[in-house]
Amino acid sequence: MPGYTPPLRDMHFVLHELLQVESEFAQLPVHAELDRDTINQVLEEGGKFAAGVLFPLNQVGDREGCRFDVETHAVTAPTGFKDAYRQYVDAGWPSLSCDPEFGGQGLPVTLNNGFYEMLNSANQAWTMYPGLSHGAYECLHAHGTPEQQALYLPKLVAGEWTGTMCLTESHCGTDLGLLKTKAVPQSDGSYRLTGSKIFISAGEHDLAANIVHLVLARLPDAPEGTKGISLFVVPKFLPDANGNPGERNPIFCGAIEHKMGIHGNATCQINLDGATGWIIGEPNRGLNAMFVMMNAARLGVGMQSLGLTEVAYQNAVAYARDRIQGRSLTGPKDPGKPADSIIVHPDVRRMLLTARAYAEGGRAFTSYVALMIDRELNHPDEAQRREAADEVALLTPIVKAFLTDNAWIACSEALQVYGGHGYIAEWGMEQYLRDSRINMIYEGTNTIQSLDLLGRKVLMDNGAKLRKFGETIKAFIDEHGTAEKMAEFITPLADIADKMSKLSMEIGMKAFMNRDEVGAAAVPYLRVAGHLVFSWLFARMAKIALDNEAGGDTFYKAKLATARFYFARLLPETAMLIRQARSGAARLMAMDEALF
Ligand SMILES: Cc1cc2nc3c(=O)[nH]c(=O)nc-3n(C[C@H](O)[C@H](O)[C@H](O)COP(=O)(O)OP(=O)(O)OC[C@H]3O[C@@H](n4cnc5c(N)ncnc54)[C@H](O)[C@@H]3O)c2cc1C
User: Fold this and answer.
1) pLDDT digits 0-9 by tens, 534-582
2) Could you report the per-residue pLDDT of 64-73, keeping only the tens digit for each?
3) Which atom of ligand 1 is nearest to the CA of 446?
4) Which residues does 400 contact at the CB level (< 8 Å), separation at least 6?
5) Which of 180, 237, 361, 418 is the residue whose CA sits 20 to 30 A from 563?
6) In sequence order, what are the beta bridge partners of 211?
7) Which residue among 310, 413, 443, 517 is the active-site one?
């Protein structure tokens, strides 16, 4: 049986010492009153819910999966999921960072983010139900009409209703321009939707009274491709005059998928059989509106992977302390026992530290991006809001792809620490590995994130966003570059920053001649970018740890050890990645298709 302890100490470190959120929030009028104690209290309570209520359901959900009734189209979530959801709603958790105008508590995204890390560590499959609802809330909040907002937002904020995002169809996932679902305008201003969606997470279940589907579809006169896609809100039950669930809308679950992981979350085929919906935003601008939800979801997927990295790490450490096998290469460490704990072996430590560094780096990274979102949403100065928005745009694909790739590595290393027992279901480690795999695929595969980063976010604006972010890093290097104690962190940071900017320029030049160069370089390029962010954050964390080391708190000693491990053992993969990114398109395109 695995265990989970919310990593509150490290969360406090990231929020209060690294990011100094209290003084950041003081600049945002809506959060100006928020103090450290309140922040910590929310996280503590959130951690209790995650560890106490959700975590015990994680293996149950994996074993049982969801059940589909072909006669009624009903889906039943695994044992305990519904009750946990009721507790979640009763405690007011869905409303944490939502707009007070619609019943929300108006707390920062940064705080919600920390809460979601713990939910995901405890139970990713369960967390997807409220996670998607929050995305639907954000989309309607940004693009819904006042009537739609008044009708749907209070229900989503309260958690009474949940949400979905219905994009994918059997013939199109990445290329949404191919989608076929039709929406025909009706005389009363509504639309009649017909078509079939697949892979819709939380598409049907028994947790809530209604499900608010956000559906991409095409109007009859829509242009081909992505410029002809509109977005619709299609509730499972049509709201009656009082805004309560009324007549059943013909949007039905046709089947649920049997899949590798996240068994507790229903992945549904959703058939729209003349379902009634209402357009959100402008006709043919649906993808634009949906991007609000997709961006939120991309960060959300990063949080899923951070959650899994943390819980896999915690369990691997506990096992490595407990399991005795062989003797330390430098002589017995525990002569009273027949063998030493496996934590004495250098390579076991490498595996543990890899997972730990990915968890700590990921926590710092996602908290930083969440803070930038709070700035983007609430800073009184428009220039600051715009700058923060640019940074969020640049960093979002990196959070999604880098953290999800890292989680796959971390969960695999954590499983390896268990030896053969890691492969056995009851220990829980193989579930983490299986659950983590989907995060690299949905919300735009990691290849698509890489193309977004290199093609759209870097090359399309001639590197302006990246340069701006580079200036932030350079300011840190300039400030601490002469401190002798910081040299071991600043030198590799300055080196990777320099290489990143040269690599960007080189690929940009090649891309002028051949666009395949972007596709060929994008995946290793994103990973280098991820390491640039991690190097910057680990250097900053190391600075704080060095400043506090003398006080004797072992937390800082551990932080320094992790940072040193990161620079010594993980960052060096950038040498290989840069060579791969520079190797060009020719090596990939030379093979004739017929020769594969
Ligand atoms: C468990 C699960 C839950 C999901 N939940 C949802 C949901 O809630 N809502 C929803 O709408 N969808 C959902 N999806 C769908 C998911 O977002 C898609 O599977 C994903 O976007 C990839 O689309 P695809 O499967 O059609 O693969 P394809 O688009 O066919 O891609 C196949 C491969 O080709 C690559 N590829 C495609 N195009 C390019 C390109 N231009 N350049 C380079 N490489 C390319 C891809 O990276 C991938 O490796 C879910 C999927 C799963 C499995």
Assistant:
1) 999 999 999 999 999 999 999 999 999 999 999 999 999 999 999 999 9
2) 999 999 999 9
3) 47
4) 298, 299, 301, 302, 443, 444, 446, 449
5) 418
6) 162
7) 443
What residues contact 269, with CB distance under 8 A and at least 6 apart?
Answer: 196, 197, 198, 199, 200, 203, 253, 254, 255, 256, 257
pTM above 0.70, yes or no: yes
Tokens standing for 325?
């096998």
166, 445, 452, 516: residue to mutate for ligand 1 pocket, most atoms within 8 A of CB: 445
Q: Distance between the two ends of the chain, CA-based, in angstroms?
A: 45
**Is the pLDDT at 131 greater than 80, yes or no?**
yes
DSSP classification of residue 168 = -
Given a contact cutoff of 8 angstroms between Cβ atoms, the answer to whether 443 and 298 are in contact is: yes
CB of 518 closer than 8 Å to CB of 507: yes
Given the structure tokens 């959801």, which residue do they identify? 85
How far, in Å, CA of 270 to CA of 199, rounded?
8
CA 242 vs. chain centroid, Å, equals 36
**How confident is the model over 419-462, as pLDDT tens digits?**
999 999 999 999 999 999 999 999 999 999 999 999 999 999 99
Please state, in angstroms and rounded to a whole number, the distance separating the CA atoms of residues 54 and 86: 12
| Furthest C-alpha separation in the chain | 84
443 is annotated as an active-site residue = yes
